Amino acid sequence: MKLAVLTFLSIQIFFFAQAEDSIGVVQKEGKKFIQYQVSAGNTIYSISKKYQISLPELQKINPELNNGLKAQQIILIPFKKEVKTQVSETKIIKNELETNKKNPEFKKEQKDEVKKEVETFPLEIKATQTTISNRSNTIPIEEDFKGKRILVIPFDPYLYFSDADDEIAKASNLDRTKIRTAFRKRLNALLEPDGYNTIHLLGGKTKDSLTDLNRVYKSIKYSYKDVIFTDAHPNIPIKFEDQKTISINDQNKNRQEMNHSSNSSLAKNPGKYWGLDVKDPNFFSYFETKYKIDYYIFVNQFEVKTNYENCLDRSRQNYERNFITHYTILDKMGTTLAGHRINKAYESNANQIQKILSDNMDFVAKEILKDLPK
User: Fold this and answer.
1) Mean pLDDT by 10 residues, the chain (374 residues)
2) Which of 12, 98, 231, 250 is 20–30 Å from 81 (CA)?
3) Are the C-beta atoms of 125 and 133 separated by less than 8 Å?
4) Where are the domains of the chain?
5) Which letter does DSSP use for residue 106 in this model?
């Protein structure tokens, strides 16, 4: 009888292995679909990556996603046996225990067997920005990886400046503070180039990822620097009108929007970017010893700025909005290989955060990754 119970549970685990966070499985037009309930912090990109489904296919099945993603929303995911995703088997067994309590044929000794398995089953390891597992057996770095290893450092939350968060938050039905988090997490997740072993300190796999991220922020200082031109981003002659200094009124406006009041003229100079210097003499030896790092990608600052001088559609009051990302790439010795700013132009009337992220962050990430050594 015990064997039969365990066999039944293993079948259920196999069936639900790709249905974590789901509320069931349905059939539609002869095909099986997982009913996935969206959780706070989910994005269309993260769901598509988790279930190995392309964004166009996901949006075709769920056309309502064109209006954005909302917490508690139910969307359909194609049921695929080959998909492998992390799943808490403890949660599945607990659900089976609760379900079968109502079954009179499910005898006491069978319930005790499942309860014992629940109590002894290893808990799922999770590492996020705010919750780091205190288990010692965290997921290890790939020691046998033959390629280069990259450490990605997201922008410091204090170095995020935006004049559009209220509009974006209102259109996306989100708290204003979550807009910055959405940009930070999406850009961080996309900075994972093919052919490299990428280590993320934001939502990293080691238990002290957050501690190391704070160590990074304490080890560096920022200032405006000359852009470093590379083969991927060569020096393109700047038109005369792009070199003009901004007016006193514009400087005062920048002082309200940014904390770099003395550098407000530099902020609009395409020949400058918000760069960094490492002030901790033990910085590189520490991360080399711990992670065997070859290159560092720093996202130094992220700006969302509306250019009211460039009106795309006056009748709709639609202006140009710029997503400006300042970044630095260092090698393991601390040599600066690249330092630049990516400016992605968009429209100010598009305020759904999911659409903004999908339309802009992939471009920004690809531009940054172009500067990695080939």
Assistant:
1) 47 44 75 83 78 82 81 84 43 45 46 37 30 33 67 95 94 92 94 91 80 94 93 69 39 39 56 94 93 95 91 87 96 95 93 94 95 90
2) 98
3) yes
4) 2-120, 148-369
5) S
